[in-house]
Amino acid sequence: MRRRRSDELPQFVREVEPRAFRWRRRSWIYIGIFLLACWILYPRRPSYDDSSTTKTKGSKHAYSLYATDSATLCHALLLLDALARYGSKADRVLFYPKHWDLVISDSKDRDSQLLVMARDEYKVKLHPTTLLSVEGRTTDEWTGTWDKSVTKFMAFSLASYERVIALDSDITLLSSLDELFALPPTPIAMPRAYWYETLPQPLTSLLMVIKPDLDEFQRFKQVIYGGGNPALVNAHKFDMELVNDRFEHSAMVLPHRPYALLTGEFRRSNHSAYLGNTFEAWDPEKVFKEAKLVHFSDWPLPKPWIMWPSEGLAEVQPDCGGSHEGTCLERVIWKHLYEDFRQRRKDICRLLSVPAPDWHSIRGAARSNATDGTTHQAPHAKGEADARSDSSTEQGVAHDA
C-alpha cells in the first residue's frame, strides 16, 4: 500500500483572528480588571440607621425638671406630657427626693404612680437626689424660711449633655422648645423679666438654656448653702437673684416674645413692655398663638392648682375695658389657661385642686403658701390611675429588684 505524501494530507490551518477583534477583547478584560480593583480598593461609606442617628443627636440634649413635693411632681408630668405631644426629640431628666420609691403601695400612692408613669410612658431618666434648699439668713441669724426651688440648678450637674433646658413647673408649655438647643455656644441663655419696671430688667430663671458645668454647679451650691436674703427666700425669688449675680452681664438674652409670657399680661391695660414698643396694637389672640410658654402670675390670686376665691376672681380677672357684663377675648384666654391646667392635672395626675383660701386673708398681704405654695394636700380624683395601680405595683417592684 502506497503511503500518502505530506502534501496530500488534509491541511489544518489555524485561522488568524482579526486584529481589531483581539484588541477589543483585551480592552474589555483590562477594563474589567480595573473596575474590580477600584471596587476593592475604594473606601466604602458605612451605612447609618436614621433612627440611631436621631437618637445620638437627641442624647446630647435634655430637658431638666424637678419635683420637691407631690404638686411639683404632678406639674413636671404635665410638662413631660406636653413635650411628648409636641414631638420633642431631646432626653427628659427628672430630679426628685431620694427617699421616694417606685413601689406603688396602694391606689392612694400618687407619688410612686407618677414616677412610674414618668419612667414607663414618657421615658424619663429618673434622678433621685438630695434636694437643694436655701435658708433665709440675716446678718446675725438664720430665719427658718426655706426654698427648695433652687433644686432647678441641679441641671448644671448633667455634664453628659452638651446643652440642657431647665424649666419651672408653674408654666404651661404651648410648643416644643427644641429649637433652643441650636443656639450659638454660650454658658447660659435666659429671657428678661419684662414685667419689672426697673431697667435693665433682670434675667428670669423660669427658662434657662444652659451648658452643664460641674464647676459652675459647685459654685452655685456654695452660695446656696450660705443662705440668702429672707425676703427673697420667702418670695421664692432667690433663684433669680442667684443667676443675675452670676450671669447678669454675660448671659445670652432670649426674647420674652415668645419665651416668657405671663398670664397677668392679659389683665394689664398697658402692654408696651411685652410688645417692646408703643406703636403696635395689642392683639390678645396673636400674642397667645405666638407664645411658646405661659407662666402663671396673677398674685394675690392663687396659682392654678389652688381654686380661686369667688370674690378674688371677680376682682382680679381681666376687666374687659371696665365692662362688668359679658366677656372679652382677654378674659376668655386667661380663664382657659387656668381651666386647661386644672383639667390636665386631673386627667394626668388624678389630682383635684386645693380648696380656695379665704380671699380677705390673702388680699393685699405678702406672698404666702396660701397663694403659691405646693405643700397642700390636694384631693385625689378617682379614675384610670386607681385602676392601673394594682398592675403597676407589680411592675414597679420587679423593676426595682
Describe the structure.
The protein has 401 residues and is of the alpha/beta class. It has a single domain (57-386), classed as Spore Coat Polysaccharide Biosynthesis Protein SpsA, Chain A. It contains 15 helices and twelve strands. It has helices spanning 19-41, 50-58, 70-85, 110-120, 214-225, 230-234, 238-247, 256-259, 272-275, 284-290, 310-316, 329-349, 359-362, 369-372, 384-400; strands spanning 61-66, 91-97, 125-129, 134-137, 142-147, 163-167, 171-173, 188-191, 207-210, 252-254, 261-262, 293-295. Strands 3-2-1-6-9-8-10 form a seven-stranded mixed beta sheet. The chain has a three-stranded mixed beta sheet with strand order 7-12-11. Strand 1 (61-66), helix 3 (70-85) and strand 2 (91-97) form a beta-alpha-beta unit. The longest helix has 23 residues, at 19-41. Residues 43-56, 137-144 and 385-401 have low confidence and may be disordered.
Fill in the keyword field for this structure.
3-stranded mixed beta sheet, 7-stranded mixed beta sheet, alpha/beta, 12 strands, globular, Spore Coat Polysaccharide Biosynthesis Protein SpsA, Chain A, single chain, 13% strand, 401 residues
